Amino acid sequence: MSYVSKEQIEQAKQLDLLTYLQVYEPYELVRCSRNVYCTRTHDSLKISNGKWFWWSRGIGGRSALDYLIKVKGLTFLEAVLELTGQASIERPHRDVQHDILTSSSKEFKLPERSGSNQRVITYLKKRGIEQSIIEFCIVSGRLYESHPYHNAVFVGFDLQDVPRYAAIRGTSKTKYMGEVGGSDKRYSFSIAAKDDGENLHLFESAIDLLSYCTLAKLKGSDWRQMHLLSLGGIYKPSVGKEQVDAPAALTQYLNARPEIRRLVLHLDNDEAGRMATATIQVLLSSQLIVMDESPTTGKDVNEELLCFRSQQLRKVHNQR
Asked: Which H/E stretch holds residue 39?
């Protein structure tokens, strides 16, 4: 049984949430104003003046310890061990954690590969994604399992098929999300249409993209006949700028494939996702047919997939 000392507890209590997110989960941190931040997962969780409050749930606290217990659902013991660096749960290596706003200034190097992809395959299948789609990504070099942390690595390539980007997704209960240092967001995770399709489908994450492929396959459509692009996180237009630009990955993809005529948006059903959808529609409607096909159920495409699979299982059960 794990044990923590009074010194470890005091050490854990000293770390504020803003510092914790900056160091360990930079992908989660979103600046709302000069002195206020929120998280990507919970946009109503605000961090300011050394405190945080989750407005949609009516709970708050001061420390990262409070956050791990009240928001992440860790036990007190797990949270203390996590913050003092002695957790038995897997943590991503610090070398691959970074702030996405400054990632382009660092040298890009893919994480070491594990000898097996089984942890990643099991994780993605639990998320409802078809094994044949997972295997396609592995064989094509777009997906692999890292060593020694067993994270899922989603790789993006430039036009010469050179890896230039990688998103990291933890397969353990820490739910880590981030990017490899030096990633070029212009070349985020994507799957090009097999036969120069005219439709481009846009997603926030690689898992949402693969979830849509699975939905298409389950409904009888050929997912290889469409272009699929992930933004590697939510696109958040800069407030106060005279000129707002489309996401770098989207701009790069459209410039490289002039045959695309129709853009289909599958961004999240939250405030940030709706704002991003509206902004992209305004920016590109004069050049393309832009369609909003946000998830009909759940917050994102993966939740929509899991809901669809659940409905299919109920139908099969009722027919017996």
From this structure: strand 37-39
Q: How far apart are CA 230 and CA 36, in angstroms?
A: 27
Q: How far is CA 121 from CA 143, 214, 304, in A?
A: 10, 14, 20
d(CA 319, CA 229): 38
Q: Which residues of 125-141 are buried (b: 16+ CB within 10 A; e: fewer)?
A: eebbbbeebbebbeeee
Q: How many CB atoms lie within 10 A of CB 238?
A: 8
Closest CA to 178 of 105, 93, 261: 93
pLDDT at 85 over 70: no
Which of 151, 128, 156 is CA-nearest to residue 141? 156
Which of 261, 266, 262 minimizes the C-alpha distance to 277?
Answer: 266
Secondary-structure breakdown of the chain: helix, strand, coil percentages, each rounded to the nearest 5 = 40, 20, 45
d(CA 140, CA 143) in angstroms, rounded, equals 8
Question: What are residue 216's DSSP bridge partners?
Answer: none
Rounded to whole angstroms, the Cα distance separating 178 from 140 reads: 22
**Residue 39 reports pLDDT greater than 90:** no
60 close to 52: Cβ distance less than 8 angstroms: yes
- Specify the amino acid at residue 195: D
pLDDT surpassing 80 at residue 227: yes
Q: How many CB atoms within 10 Å of residue 320?
A: 4
The number of residues in the chain equals 320
Residue of 304 and 94 predicted with greater confidence: 304
Query: Mean pLDDT score of the chain, rounded to an integer?
Result: 86
Question: Cβ(86)–Cβ(96) under 8 Å?
Answer: no
